[in-house]
Amino acid sequence: MNIEEINRKHFIKTDMFFRVGKGLSSRLLRFEHGIIYLEIEVRSKWTRSVDAAAWTIANSWKNEHPEFKEAVASKVYVIDSRSYDYKRTLLHLGVKPGYDAYKGVFFK
Question: Taking the model in full, what pTM does it have?
Answer without folding.
Answer: 0.91
